[in-house]
Design brief:
three-stranded antiparallel beta sheet; binds S-adenosylmethionine; Rossmann fold; 2 domains; 7 helices
Length: 267
């Protein structure tokens, strides 16, 4: 991490300026309501005056049993600030502190705030999504954030999905509010998270078989996998044979692969 992150000149990409509606936040958050007790939530792309993420957690601070709520603004031409709700002995205190820089989520001071948080919940700029997720993974944070579904096929995000480090949430917001109050519609937006979601534990009934139907499942030239177009066509009996080291074997098991050892080779 370079130390000159504070020097990023704040430049808002107008395509990133659309705000999440509180109804969409509530629809998704209801699946995680027991997850936030005693935790510090950080909304790091959120102006508390405009953000319904801030509004939602401020309103339901006690319902969630939060310990702390923090938001940082991102500003082009005026000082950015941090707003906190802190549970103290005398109740809940609201504290506003100016930031030194522009509130870029990559800046050293925002990274310091991130380090002190447990869960990040927001809708980050879509144009910086890969960088944004990499940072959350790097600092080992829990998160629930909005992003476009297209990013699933980009190399970095695909790897995180494959390695079970991130998955999609429960709902798909369709409408966002633009700065002039108009609605921007999206058909390809969802939530990405590493929090436990009910869908993740639902059994997927599989009815297709691979053996004898190999021609229906072409293999990729550049990746050790078969192509399946629809979830309903995932075969129940597809296996691959692989020579792996002991560490790789442990990793595969940790990722949830069902492993059968055919032969142990020692050198
Ligand atoms: C898609 S909007 C969502 C805003 C808010 N989280 C919400 O959902 O209502 C993304 C926000 O991130 C802010 N942003 C853009 N670049 C940023 C950066 N480098 N660091 C922090 N915030 C940034 C934008 O100004 C924008 O308001």
């Amino acid at each position: 991490m370079s130390s000159n992150k504070n020097l990023h000149k704040a430049k808002k990409n107008q395509n990133d300026e659309h705000y999440t509606r509180i109804t969409d936040i509530e629809k998704e958050l209801k699946w995680y309501k027991d997850h936030f007790k005693g935790k510090a939530v950080y909304c790091n792309c959120d102006d508390p005056e405009k953000s319904d993420f801030w509004k939602h957690f401020e309103m339901d601070f006690d319902f969630y049993g939060l310990d702390r709520l923090v938001a940082t603004t991102y500003e082009e031409d005026k000082p950015a600030y941090k707003l906190e709700l802190i549970r103290g002995e005398d109740g809940i205190e609201k504290v506003k502190t100016p930031l030194k820089g522009n509130g870029d989520f990559r800046s050293d001071e925002c990274i310091e705030i991130l380090k002190g948080a447990d869960v990040v919940v927001t809708n980050p700029p879509f144009s910086l999504f890969r960088e944004y997720i990499s940072q959350l993974i790097e600092y080992g944070k829990e998160f629930l954030v909005i992003g476009t579904l297209n990013v699933r096929t980009c190399k970095e995000i695909f790897k995180l999905i494959k390695d079970n480090k991130i998955w999609v949430g429960e709902t798909y917001p369709k409408e966002f509010v633009q700065p002039d109050g108009s609605i921007k519609k999206f058909g390809n937006v969802g939530w990405y998270t590493n929090l436990p979601t009910p869908k993740r534990y639902e059994e997927l009934p599989l009815g297709r078989v691979y053996k004898g139907n190999e021609d229906k499942y072409p293999k990729y030239d550049n990746y050790d996998a078969i192509n399946v177009d629809k979830v309903v066509d995932i075969p129940m009996d597809y296996t691959m044979e692989k020579v792996v080291t002991k560490t790789e074997l442990e990793n595969l098991k940790r990722q949830g692969y069902i492993v059968e050892i055919i032969e142990e080779i020692y050198d």
